[in-house]
Write a structure and sequence with these properties.
Helix content: 10-25%
Number of helices: 1
Strand content: 25-35%
Length: 90
């Protein structure tokens, strides 16, 4: 599991982590595509006071901002809490 460091985390007085499981869609996969290196598990710091859904959106926003990913449809992203319980984003 890799840790994502993003600029906003320094502003959070207290944090917890959300886990993102990122998969590259097979129909869009290419060995030359740099986005393939993003696949895997990522631990992302979010504000402690956020509920799971807001924290999940914060984590996804941080991920796609840090990597400046243009084609969001190239990925399937699954969101989990620290105990790996799935979080359903509305």
């Amino acid at each position: 599991m890799r840790t994502l460091h993003h600029d906003n985390e320094i502003y959070y007085p207290a944090t917890r982590h959300i886990i993102l499981e990122v998969e590259v869609r097979q129909e869009l996969w290419s060995p030359e595509e740099p986005s393939n290196r993003l696949a895997g598990l990522w631990k992302v710091a979010v504000p402690l006071e956020q509920d799971d859904v807001d924290a999940g959106w914060t984590a996804m926003g941080a991920f796609f901002t840090v990597f400046e990913t243009a084609n969001l449809q190239a990925f399937d992203v699954y969101v989990y809490d620290e105990q790996m319980n799935p979080i359903e984003l509305d």
